[in-house]
Design a protein that fits this description.
This protein has about 300 residues and is of the alpha/beta class. It folds into two domains: about 60 residues; about 210 residues, Vaccinia Virus protein VP39 (Rossmann fold, 3-Layer(aba) Sandwich), CATH 3.40.50.150. It is about 50% helix and about 15% strand. It contains eleven helices and seven strands. The chain has a seven-stranded mixed beta sheet with strand order 3-2-1-4-5-7-6, sandwiched between helices. Strand 4, helix 9 and strand 5 form a beta-alpha-beta unit. It is globular, with a radius of gyration of 23 Å. It starts with a helix and ends in a 6-residue tail after the last strand.
């Protein structure tokens, strides 16, 4: 088990290794056949090629299913360390935020969320937009044509590195590295829409509340809020929760393990932060809460 864990960690850190090993094994086989080095050596080369091909295929499946290191030495609120440890390559970063190891899958995974955000916030091409916990700009990349400006904020430097690579060429997209679980770097009353999607599952409840308070501060009068999480009260959400409960029944919970929400929880954050027009939207497995800051943007 220890050898397996070390091997998995090595593949996560250097995902190119299995493919490179296959290529080298293939070249070795070709060399053995062309140089007539003998049946034994050729057979050994065939075995090496088969073994390396198996490891390559296995590693692709492992990355796709997000076999992350447990990181049990870190606290849940060690957000920077947790996500920098996970996002050690572009592929592991993509899988972490979408479950997909390639650009095509990443983009496809963003489209339902983009539709929800644009529709439920009534986003326009005149809006200045902020995403809390933007990751690799999975959503921001797709929102570029829907808003005036998009700013992605995240606490993980590794995730933001890949976000910057993805948004090169977009003049209206930018990212901000957060120094803490807050929006300290964002000026007050400077935005029209603030949203957080697929972020609250990984946050402590007090930090969820803190980000909603911060969203109120940075929004202009009339600005709109969008927050979501897996809905614990839905059938799909409860199934996800019960599966996690069974899987981790005898194990230490990793710091990135999702924690789900209810409509009442998310609505309470928005209401107590001062928002009005607080509404819940159930789009299985998600519960989405939208709200607006009182006043009219001049």
């Amino acid at each position: 088990m220890r050898v397996f864990s070390r091997g998995s960690a090595l593949i996560r850190r250097f995902p190119f290794l299995p493919g490179a090993t296959v290529a080298i094994s293939g070249l070795a086989l070709v060399f053995a056949l062309m140089s007539h080095t003998g049946v034994d050596i050729a057979f050994a080369a065939i075995l090496a090629l088969a073994a390396s091909a198996f490891v390559w295929g296995y590693s692709r499946r492992a990355l796709k299913h997000a076999l992350w290191p447990p990181l049990n030495h870190l606290q849940r609120r060690s957000y920077r360390e947790v996500w920098d440890s996970i996002a050690i390559s572009r592929e592991t970063a993509d899988v972490a935020v979408s479950g997909e190891p390639d650009e095509a899958g990443l983009r496809a995974s963003a489209r339902p969320t983009v539709r929800n955000i644009v529709e439920l916030t009534a986003m326009t091409s005149h809006d200045d937009v902020l995403e809390i916990g933007c990751g690799v700009a999975r959503i921001g990349y797709e929102l570029a044509s829907h808003c005036r400006t998009w700013t992605g904020a995240d606490i993980s430097a590794n995730l933001l590195q890949y976000a910057r690579e993805r948004i090169v060429g977009f003049k209206n997209l930018s990212v901000v590295h957060l120094s803490e679980a807050a929006l300290t770097e964002i000026p007050g009353s400077s935005l029209d829409v603030v949203y957080a999607t697929n972020v609250f599952p990984h946050l402590d409840e007090i930090d969820r509340w803190k980000y909603v308070q911060e969203a109120f501060r940075v929004l202009r009068p009339g600005g709109r809020l969008f927050i979501d999480n897996v809905d614990l009260e839905s059938s799909a959400g409860w199934t996800m929760f019960s599966n996690d409960a069974a899987r981790f029944a005898r194990l230490e919970r990793p710091p990135y393990m999702p924690r789900y929400s209810t409509e009442a929880e998310l609505a309470a954050y928005a209401t107590h932060a001062g928002f009005q027009n607080v509404k819940a939207h159930h789009r299985s497995p998600l519960v989405i809460v939208t709200a607006s800051k009182p006043g009219t943007n001049p």
